[in-house]
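Please, structure for the following, as tokens.
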Amino acid sequence: MTKTGQYYGNDNYCWSHGYNVAKNHDSKSCKEEWRHTGHKEEANGDNPMKAPPRTDSSPSGEIDGVGSVKQIILRRKKRNQ
């Protein structure tokens, strides 16, 4: 799989979020509330295990498969409580 538009400078991979993840994020460490349905902890960069398609935006308002802006803000608020 080709990595493009990378913000984080590492080779980590998460089944739900792809290659563009922080250095402490991968399929195994992905937080439960951020995982997509069918998330596979054993997926990695060498074996992505047919991950869901990724888009920058979608009709549902999702951003890069992470959720809507409102969902992201609510998760961050909950995490910081």
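Confidence is low (pLDDT under 50) at residues 56-63. Residues 69-79 form the longest helix (11 residues).
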